[in-house]
Specification:
Structural class: alpha+beta
CATH architecture: 4-Layer Sandwich
Main location: cytoplasm
Order of helices and strands: EEEEEEHHEEEEHHEE
Keywords: Cytoplasm, Nucleus, Proteasome
Shape: globular
Protein name: Proteasome subunit beta
CATH topology: Glutamine Phosphoribosylpyrophosphate, subunit 1, domain 1
CATH superfamily: Aminohydrolase, N-terminal nucleophile (Ntn) domain
Strand order of the largest sheet: 10-1-2-11-12
Subcellular location: Cytoplasm; Nucleus
Largest sheet: 5 strands, antiparallel
Family: Belongs to the peptidase T1B family.
């Protein structure tokens, strides 16, 4: 078994019309053994930016603390919150620093640009590999053990300019459909839809067998 599949888990992010969504499953396992079903893999960076980190759970926690420190230092120095695109490059450089002994994480970044940026409330999604090679997408990005299934579901369901409610329904059906076809992900899911006014967070029930 690949070390990337040791703990299992999957994350997907999608763009909408002035909104963006990111969702993950809640399973953490030790190979085929399920340890818990409340393991959220998506973490807030700012009120408008989130990162999902499927992969090795110990590296997920290490990077969560490192990104929290680096974004706090950025905010102290710049006196403003970090923009999602800037944060994506910070993630890339952090991973590339350890390219000869990489973190076993495939990060997914989702957020909205700030009101003071050149394009306010612009949806942004990106994903990276183990050594920080960024993939900027205009539709959706996926990561984790159910990546192949997520690609298939997302390509069939995603449309342009989805409103927040439509985006929630689309990403939920995409994730749940993929989780039913992957033994290392599932056992519930959590979805966050980021809009200019608020973050809508909902927990989904999934198959528990």
């Amino acid at each position: 078994m690949s070390i990337m599949e040791y703990n299992g888990g999957s994350v997907v992010a999608m763009r909408g019309k002035n909104c963006v969504a990111i969702a993950s499953d809640l399973r953490i396992g030790q190979q085929a053994l399920t340890l818990a079903c409340n393991h959220d893999k998506v973490f807030p960076i700012t009120q408008r930016c989130y990162i999902g980190m499927p992969g090795l759970a110990s590296d997920t926690e290490t990077l969560r603390q490192r990104f929290r420190y680096r974004t706090s230092m950025y905010q102290l120095k710049e006196e403003r919150e970090i923009e999602p695109e800037t944060f994506a490059h910070l993630v890339s450089s952090t991973l590339y620093e350890k390219r000869f002994g990489p973190y076993f994480i495939e990060p997914v970044i989702a957020g909205l640009s700030g009101p003071d940026s050149k394009t306010p409330n612009e949806p942004f999604i990106a994903a990276a590999d183990l050594i920080g090679c960024l993939n900027f997408a205009k539709d959706f990005v996926v990561a984790g053990t159910a990546s192949d299934k997520l690609f298939g579901m997302a390509e069939g369901l995603w449309e342009e300019d989805l409103e927040p409610d439509e985006l929630f329904e689309t990403i939920s059906q995409t994730l749940l459909g993929a989780l039913e076809r992957d033994a290392l992900s599932g056992w519930g899911a959590i979805v966050r839809v980021i809009t200019p006014d608020k973050v809508i967070e909902r927990t989904l029930r999934a198959r528990m067998d």
